[in-house]
Amino acid sequence: EVQLVESGGGLVQPGGSLELSCVPSGLTVTSNYMSWVRQAPGRGLEWVSVISSGGTTYYADSVKGRFTISRDKPENTLYLQMNSLRAEDTAVYYCARGQTVIRDLYYFYYLDVWGKGTTVTVSS
Amino acid sequence: DIVMTQSPDSLAVSLGERATISCKSSQSVLYNSNNKNYLAWYQQKPGQPPRLLINWASTRESGVPDRFSGSGSGTDFTLTISSLQAEDVAVYFCHQYYDTPPTFGQGTKLEIK
């Protein structure tokens, strides 16, 4: 059974930094599209970032330039480095696997496996 | 970005009755060349992560009870629970993966009447 376990969340002051980790079992991060999705308290789901199996990265406009998604092959771990944090970044952050489909030579994906999430609170 | 709008925001249904949730996209998520709708439905129970129920608008994931069904095409989609069970209390989200960035509906909270 594929599982994802996130860690690294916590309380951080505005302008601070935090690095989230996602460790999978049953899959290899470098062979999959891996994504971060967040959910603010009492709110809906917001896609944050994805890294393709080839290493290409994409970001939501709301985090572009502040967040960096990466992965470590030997550690088989996905990361999300979050800098210049704002109050509006407060959320549960989920790691999820993207199940890819090809259309017109581009890859698209739905999210078929999710971790339990890690909570990030940005507050002074 | 494609905007996904669900209705209603909340819904109360009696046990054993039918529950219907609507999802509309601001542009079509149907790819005509393969006749597939790039639309998924997720269930999120309190304190849990989302769980994928349906992809391609109508294909149930393995292990999902057959009382859950998805329908629709283009811009209008429906998630139906044919006979509501107590364990179906959750928030349901639709999700389009037709375009980047992927986007979600705001969620529909389903409760027991």
Describe the 3D structure.
The complex is a heterodimer of chains A (124) and B (113). Chain A has 124 residues and is mainly beta. Chain A has strands spanning 3-7, 10-12, 18-25, 33-39, 45-51, 57-59, 67-72, 77-82, 91-103, 106-114, 118-122. In chain A, the strands form two sheets. In chain A, strands 2, 4, 5, 6, 9, 10 and 11 form a seven-stranded mixed sheet that branches. A four-stranded antiparallel sheet of chain A has the order 1-3-8-7, with no helix packed on it. Chain B is an all-beta fold and 113 residues long. Chain B contains no helices and 13 strands. In chain B, the strands form three sheets. In chain B, strands 2, 6, 7, 8, 11, 12 and 13 form a seven-stranded mixed sheet that branches. Chain B has a four-stranded antiparallel sheet with strand order 1-3-10-9, with no helix packed on it. The radius of gyration of chain B is 13 Å and the shape is globular.
Radius of gyration of chain A: 14 Å
Mean pLDDT of chain A: 96
Supply the number of helical segments of chain B. Answer: 0
What is the CA-CA span between the terminal residues of chain A?
A: 40 Å
Secondary structure class of chain A reads mainly beta
Termini separation of chain B: 36 Å
Largest sheet of chain A: 7 strands, mixed
Number of strands of chain A: 11
SSE pattern of chain A: EEEEEEEEEEE
Radius of gyration of chain B: 13 Å
Share of helix of chain B, binned: under 10%
Order of helices and strands of chain B: EEEEEEEEEEEEE
The quaternary structure here is heterodimer
How large is the count of helical segments of chain A? 0
Class of secondary structure makeup of chain B? mainly beta
Sum up the structure in keywords:
heterodimer; A: 124 residues; mainly beta; seven-stranded mixed sheet; four-stranded antiparallel sheet; B: 113 residues; 13 strands; 51% strand
Briefly characterize the structure:
The complex is a heterodimer of chains A (124) and B (113). Chain A is mostly beta strands and 124 residues long. Chain A has no helices and eleven strands.
